[in-house]
């Protein structure tokens, strides 16, 4: 670096962006979430809700799903004894996300060998390159299913919603899209024209430079394939067609990382190969086992999936009266998405009333509330709890809940209010210090706030007057 070099903000005599009053850090790369940015949660938690012996069908709605991680973790965490039908609606307004989720599920249903299916799903999800064998499955077995539908709907109006259900033993997979979106779908199975392994590496590297980090991270960021440290990646030669939509863009932010979507404590507890502290190798083995378990579940118990591609605000129309035992909405309740009022008003009516299931819960995640409150109220207070109270007043959560006929649950039964917070007492124990170090090594802050909601008394009374509900537990 030249001795005379000065940062641009000094030359331009302005405040640098990193201390601007806007929240958050400066982002680089496309704002798209092909990989979740908070650890997966089991939204059912049967044991601490309906009870481990529960045997009634369960309806789940993921209204702004992002990737499939919450679905995979929820299904695989069910007790062995649970055998009743599961109905899972997975919606996202981004067609890239819906197409990838469809491909993950098709891999699970079509590939009969659970090991191979888990391996393919893992790489299509998290690797920039895939093997010839994986690409052949996508091209020869999966794409024809979509092309078949595309041929049949050629004459339909482009904006009409069209559904197709595939049956696999006792399970099924339904996809509802406009004709326009259906026609686009085959492209997610094809490598874009002119895209090569070399080109894929170059466009990825332009966004994802290896940071000063552990060897495992450097290797993953360099080669882009989620493998244990010692495992060669030469067999991965085909750019992942579900990631690269064009020859010139890596579609995620520089900071996006597969480890953000899973509990670091859990996957670091996984045994993996001979390399020590091989975080990405441990994540690989953890996911491989989880996806294998998911495959076994789908091939032995009844699950019906429905994938939709609409804004969450219109789900009440597209779901035509269906009610759910759990609704998970990611962080679209944050004020930079829908905000709490629209979220509760549009999704609350889809939640089952306590007279049908007193454990029915809508789960909201706030990732931006604390930093927003810190900025708005210019508070330096380190304790997020005080900030969230102010935030709730600012957006009048009490009114939002009552006008949606919902009530905030005082006691959480799905996910703790602050699951990523470390013990911040003045006298932390050794374990707290270790948790803190672990948190520092992740993309999480500790201010991620979850809230759980159930149907309130006013709607219960209205539902009762209408009659017709059954008590489940
Ligand atoms: C809210 S974003 C943020 C990332 C998220 N925290 C995660 O871990 O995936 C999650 C997903 O919500 C989707 N989304 C955003 N607004 C939506 C809306 N109004 N309706 C449906 N999906 C929405 C995005 O396309 C994205 O895939």
TrEMBL record:
Taxonomic lineage: Eukaryota, Fungi, Dikarya, Ascomycota, Pezizomycotina
InterPro entries assigned to the protein according to its UniProt record, in alphabetical order: DUF4470
Q: Which organism is it from?
A: Xylaria multiplex
Pfam families assigned to the protein according to its UniProt record, in alphabetical order: DUF4470
User: Which domain of life does the protein's organism represent?
Assistant: Eukaryota
User: What protein does this entry describe?
Assistant: DUF4470 domain-containing protein
Q: DUF4470 domain: from which residue to which, for each copy?
A: 34-130
